[in-house]
């Protein structure tokens, strides 16, 4: 096995294909010494004989793009997740991960494919193309007695392990506490030692915007049930949902709103993203005229028909129009990339998208000031709509934190800082947390590695068969979801499916699929999940925002989830800093599990799948979340002799209150 990148000659420089989106210049404040290190770091992938030619080229990338991507090492043409048999490899997992990586970098899937960004403005597969080539080189040689270690995109090497060990263990952007902040992260990323993996970008488990549609659909529908009084068997017909963002994940909003029956207006400043969503059929109408957008929405509401409208413009302008024209909004949110608010994730009102890109590159301080001013106007408009009866929720994009960072302390519950949370809920706090995560329902997914649509059909049918729609309303929602999944045309990239399931639901489906692989009914399958789940993520502004025992600032759960999945033999395990909310604000992890039809895989699934989810439910139960306690009591009953989850005693609120009050009086 080669321990350096095999490179007989330098690949030719290639032109960038017109029309493929490019990442803006990234922020990097480097000293002269830092720049030298950055250059040496990039050159360590390349034989010395090429350094003279490459050094100025890499330096130019650092100067103009803020990072060294090594563009000339990108393979020519379109990358895409091909059928697994097209890949070389000495073990099935080595080939399967190549499918997943290439899918994450597909022009049709990725946000900025040349910069290895899959989604979420900054979420990268790895840092540069030299790493990409070296990772692939290792994956081709990897055997089932070895584990490949990836640290922030860099393949550290292959180490001996055993058949039941993970084939890949990867981490992204994990920083020592003192340096765990955006400025130090940006410096480290510019020097080529830190990768922002987001969630499934650096975890190689992205399945296109479909991955988030089911969660967004669940959020909207359950928001309607909880806040608008919509009965459990009805949808959002006649209701108006307003939000912003039609990018990687946010692009799911229109589709999810239509599946949930609503009329939706989604603002988007970047026309190229609107075009993508329109071509995919993920939004149905497009206009840059506010009056037209509102008329379309009102017509759809009157007729009770679903309709997703893209408004080409700034969300703040949209909200001002709705206020000034007294239009009632039922549900309101935002999915701009506020986790990277000063890196280009949020476009300030009053400037065009092109102007935002120029300002970002030329005057970062002026850009920051414009973002802060815009966020202040944005939250004032939300306050006004809320006073008029709109239900607003933060969509896990760090919007409220960004508003707070812009200097608006009135959104803090304690009026001073973010420690006690914000006056508006995060969608997890009110909706996904209590209704789904506390039961263990989360974004289980799979990819049919054969690339055959008929395999996906067979797995859809098998999954539907595994669900009892009469058990809980969540099961009925999930059953209907997978029944209609094909009709809703959600596949972008590999033949993949998202399906919210609880712990035992996931296990049942996983074992069924593995049996189907064994019987030759379908080709191999990659199982995984988003990090945005019950157990994989500690994120006080999002996934763990409904944990109220003070432990929402701890990262033990995500770390244990990762370690436990390694111990049980998942094929790939990932642990990241930042996820969907930004550096220092979350620790999150995911997994990949290759179903090869073997009994060995059955055994791994039987212990790893329940652990991956129930570790999270157990922690939620210990935080006294009622639905999680109920779920853990049932789990203990059903799994007596093998598993036992600790259950809390519940103190009487009045007793605790009086005791503390008395103590404070003394
Ligand atoms: N709720 C969830 O389940 C969930 C899941 C994943 C990610 N997220 C978060 O949602 C955010 C969006 O993710 P993404 O992958 O779609 O990112 P993205 O960067 O691909 O898309 C965001 C879009 O917002 C647009 N935009 C920015 N400012 C705007 C403005 N003022 N008005 C109108 N449009 C504007 C951008 O042009 C961009 O297309 C991220 O912060 C991400 O972490 C949420």
Strand segment count: 17
- Helix content percent band: 40-55%
Identify every distinct bound molecule in the structure, by name, code or SMILES: nicotinamide-adenine-dinucleotide
Rg calc:
24 Å
Roughly what is the average pLDDT, rounded to an integer? 96
Low-pLDDT segments: none
Secondary-structure-based class equals: alpha/beta
Portion in beta strands: 5-15%
Total helical segments: 21
Query: How far from one another are the termini?
Result: 72 Å
> Which geometry do the CA atoms define?
globular
- Please give the largest β-sheet: 9 strands, mixed
Task: Summarize the structure in words.
The structure is a single chain. The longest helix is centred in the middle third of the chain and has 24 residues, at 364-387. With 666 residues, the chain is α/β, with parallel strands linked by helices. Strands 3, 4, 5, 12, 13, 14, 15, 16 and 17 form a 9-stranded mixed β-sheet that branches. Strands 8-9-7-6-10-11 form a 6-stranded parallel β-sheet. A two-stranded antiparallel ribbon has the order 1-2. It is built from 21 helices and 17 strands. β8 (285-287), α9 and β9 form a beta-alpha-beta unit. Nicotinamide-adenine-dinucleotide is lined by residues 111, 119-121, 212, 215, 244-250, 267-270, 273, 314-315, 335-339, 345-347, 395-397, 532, 580.
């Amino acid at each position: 096995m080669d321990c350096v990148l095999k490179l007989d000659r330098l690949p030719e420089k290639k032109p960038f294909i017109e029309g493929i989106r490019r990442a803006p210049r990234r922020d990097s404040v480097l000293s002269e010494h830092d720049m030298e290190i950055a250059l040496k770091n990039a050159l360590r992938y390349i034989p010395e004989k090429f350094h003279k030619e490459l050094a100025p080229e890499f330096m130019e990338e650092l100067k103009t793009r803020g990072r060294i991507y090594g563009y000339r090492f990108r393979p020519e043409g379109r990358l895409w997740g091909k059928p697994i048999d097209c890949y070389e490899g000495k073990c099935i997992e080595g080939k399967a991960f190549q499918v997943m990586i290439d899918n994450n970098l597909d022009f049709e899937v990725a946000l900025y494919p040349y910069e290895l960004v899959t989604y979420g403005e900054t979420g990268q597969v790895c840092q540069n193309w030299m790493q990409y080539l070296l990772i692939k080189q290792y994956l081709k040689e990897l055997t089932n007695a070895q584990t490949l270690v990836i640290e922030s995109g860099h393949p550290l090497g292959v180490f001996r392990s055993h058949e039941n060990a993970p084939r890949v263990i990867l981490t992204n952007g994990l920083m020592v506490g003192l340096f765990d902040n955006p400025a130090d992260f940006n410096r480290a990323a510019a020097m080529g030692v830190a990768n922002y993996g987001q969630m499934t970008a650096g975890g190689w488990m992205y399945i296109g915007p479909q991955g988030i549609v089911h969660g967004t659909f669940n959020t909207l529908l359950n928001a309607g049930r909880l806040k608008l009084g919509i009965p459990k068997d009805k949808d959002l017909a006649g209701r108006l949902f307003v939000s912003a963002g039609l990018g990687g994940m946010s692009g799911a909003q229109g589709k999810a709103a239509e599946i949930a029956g609503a009329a939706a207006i989604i603002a988007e400043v970047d026309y190229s993203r609107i075009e993508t969503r329109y071509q995919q059929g993920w939004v149905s109408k497009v206009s840059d005229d506010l009056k037209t957008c509102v008329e379309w929405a009102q017509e759809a509401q009157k007729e009770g028909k679903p309709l997703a409208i893209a408004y080409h413009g700034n969300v703040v302008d949209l909200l001002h129009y709705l206020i000034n024209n007294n239009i009632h909004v039922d549900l309101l949110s935002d999915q701009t990339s506020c986790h990277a608010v000063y890196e280009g994730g949020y476009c300030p009102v009053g400037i065009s998208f092109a102007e935002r890109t120029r300002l970002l590159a030329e005057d970062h301080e002026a850009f920051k000031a414009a973002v802060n001013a815009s966020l202040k106007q944005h939250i004032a408009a939300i306050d006004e709509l809320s006073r008029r009866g709109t239900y607003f929720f933060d969509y896990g994009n760090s919007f409220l934190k960004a508003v707070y960072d812009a200097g608006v302390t009135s959104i803090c519950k304690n009026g001073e800082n973010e420690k006690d949370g914000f006056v508006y809920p995060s969608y997890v706090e009110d909706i996904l947390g209590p209704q789904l995560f506390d039961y263990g329902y989360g974004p289980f997914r799979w990819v049919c590695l054969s690339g055959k649509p008929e395999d996906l059909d067979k797995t859809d049918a098998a999954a539907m068969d595994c669900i009892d729609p009469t058990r809980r309303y969540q099961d009925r929602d999930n059953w209907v979801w997978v029944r209609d999944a094909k009709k809703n045309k959600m596949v972008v990239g590999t033949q993949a499916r998202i399906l919210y399931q609880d712990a035992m639901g996931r296990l049942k489906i996983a074992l069924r699929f593995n049996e189907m692989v064994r019987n030759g009914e379908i080709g191999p399958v990659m199982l995984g999940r988003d990090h945005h789940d019950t157990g994989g993520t500690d994120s006080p502004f999002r996934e763990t925002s409904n944990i109220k025992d003070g432990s929402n600032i701890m990262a033990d759960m995500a770390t244990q989830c990762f370690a436990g999945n390694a111990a049980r033999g998942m094929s790939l395990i990932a642990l990241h800093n930042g996820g969907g909310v930004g550096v220092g604000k979350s620790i999150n992890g995911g997994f990949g599990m290759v179903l090869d039809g073997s009994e060995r895989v059955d055994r791994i699934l039987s212990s790893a799948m329940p652990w991956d989810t129930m570790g999270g439910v157990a922690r939620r139960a210990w935080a006294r979340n009622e639905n999680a306690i109920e779920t853990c009591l049932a789990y203990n009953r059903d799994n007596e002799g093998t598993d036992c989850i600790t259950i809390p005693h519940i103190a009487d609120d009045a007793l605790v209150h009086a005791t503390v009050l008395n103590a404070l009086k003394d």
